[in-house]
Write a structure and sequence with these properties.
- This protein has 2 domains: 3-100, Glucose Permease (Domain IIA), CATH 2.70.70; 104-140, no CATH class.
- It has no helices and 10 strands.
- The chain is globular, with a radius of gyration of 16 Å.
- By secondary structure, the chain is mainly beta.
- The chain is 0% helix and 34% strand.
């Protein structure tokens, strides 16, 4: 584990219609890149996985931990520069957020939602803005 943060408060909607977001006031220097609660995994082959906007208190790993496929590392949240609760995932060619190039990331056995259409996907990439769902469960 290269980087882990888990104590940033979630954002809130200002009203029941969710038309505006209230961002928590953070101390100076806390979350300067607006990543929120996040985990950066070094895969050891020059690739890094970054997961952002996790729920406060849900990050279960710390810097130096070794993680394995299927291990839960946190829960979906609404922290950082997020306009709704979600998990933001990026596979990168380096560890520097905002500077490292993104790489295609492939996922297996998920559903892609496009408007009212639902497509079962065996193996494909997930693109920015895609809404997806999986029945996969983490093993602890």
């Amino acid at each position: 584990m290269k980087e882990a943060e888990g104590d940033i408060p979630d954002n809130q909607f200002r009203d029941a219609k969710a038309t505006a977001i209230a961002y928590p006031k953070l101390p100076d220097g806390k979350d300067p890149k607006d990543l929120g609660n996040h985990v950066l995994i070094d895969h050891g082959n020059g690739e890094f996985s970054l997961m952002l906007h996790m729920k406060p208190g849900s990050v279960t790993v710390k810097v130096g931990d070794h993680v394995r496929g299927g291990q839960q590392i946190g829960s979906l949240g609404f922290s950082g520069d997020a306009i709704f609760p979600h998990l933001h995932y990026v596979l990168m060619e380096g560890p520097e957020t905002g500077k490292s190039w993104g790489l295609p990331a492939y996922f297996d056995h998920f559903r892609r939602y496009t408007g009212t259409a639902v497509t079962d996907v065996h193996h494909d990439t997930v693109n920015s803005g895609d809404f997806v769902e999986s029945d996969a469960r983490c093993s602890n």
